[in-house]
Amino acid sequence: MVLYSTLLALRIIRGHTLDVIICRENSSILARVPSIEGLQICDDKGISSLDHFAILCELNITKPPQQRKSLSFRKFKEINIENIEMDINNSLLQNERNTSVEHVVASYDSMLRTVLDRHAPEQSKVITLRPNTEWYTDELRFAKRERRKAERQIRRTKLEVHKQIYKEHCSRTSKLMFKCKTECYSNTISEVGHDHKNLLKLTNGLMENTNDVVLPSHLSEIELSNRFGNFFL
């Protein structure tokens, strides 16, 4: 195992407390020797933490792909109510009367699905799951653009004046980001008011609580339903 001596030297000379990067000497993950730079680090309130340095380490790994999800939907709002009522009535008149309850239920289900597919066919699309960034404003986008510009300048010149400009941009951007998030969430909660149902829905969204139902592996829905029924019996 290799412990890079530059970290210990900086700790002895400057008096900083740093985390260390420990890896094997012939590691294929590590692309280059870690470096230490005095980057501007701020907390969630935009307060600068000038007593910490950043350890930069380049790794031979790829960025994971964005998660994608397939959705199925129907355009119910485009359905003409009069036309679908007429089709349902005509289908009911043509529907034969069966003595078996199972046959009647299956016939009605098949008929309603056929009518629904005619007026609002099921469609599917693949979407990319992205984080909720309603708080991301044009002002914040411009501030981050200016911060990246200042970062490229300090990396190119290494001048103290450009370093100070970059720190000011970092502090300003962090404070603005915290302000945008606070105002966005505060306004959203105020609009909900005393509606506990929507407030719970909003809270679950902020906490990333999903309502996806995870069912046991099964060959068909009927087979799974029978398994549940047998279990409770």
UniProtKB/TrEMBL annotation:
Residue ranges that the Swiss-Prot or TrEMBL entry lists as coiled coil: 133-160
Q: Which keywords does UniProt give here?
A: Coiled coil
By what name is this protein known? Answer: Uncharacterized protein
Species this protein is from? Mytilus edulis
